[in-house]
Amino acid sequence: MIEAEDAVRVVDTVAKNLMGVSNNRSNFERLPDTFWGYYARGHDGKGRFAVIVTYSENAGDVDELIKMYEQWVAKSKKAVR
User: Fold this and answer.
1) Is residue 71 very low, low, confident or very high in pLDDT (cuts 50, 70, 90)?
2) Which whole number is the average pLDDT over 16-27?
3) Cβ pair 18, 40 in contact under 8 A
4) Residues 6+ apart with CB under 8 A from 60
């Protein structure tokens, strides 16, 4: 289980990163009208983390992305064991 202090550092890092992205309008130029996503990866001395932020006018797009990720995680966990 992740320690509370580690969780705080992860969320703090993600929040700062996303704030930096949101403050620059050019990060959002030429995005598709209906679907876009943002991926951030980070690490500290104990481990790594990744965050996916996605937006779609079609909820099915987001659901499908989450489903694909869950399948990838399950497959990756089997390969590691």
Assistant:
1) very high
2) 83
3) yes
4) none
Q: Which of 62, 63, 46 is nearest to 2 (CA)?
A: 46
**Mean per-residue pLDDT, 20-30:** 82
Contact 38, 54 (CB under 8 A): yes
DSSP the chain: ---HHHHHHHHHHHHHHHHHHHT-GGGGTT--SSEEEEEEEEE-SS-EEEEEEEEESSHHHHHHHHHHHHHHHHHHHHHH-
Q: Would you put residue 30 in left (φ > 0), alpha (ψ -120 to 50) or beta?
A: left
Question: What residues pair up with 39 in beta bridges, in sequence order?
Answer: 52
Is 0.85 topped by the overall pTM? no
**CA 62/CA 37 separation, integer angstroms:** 10
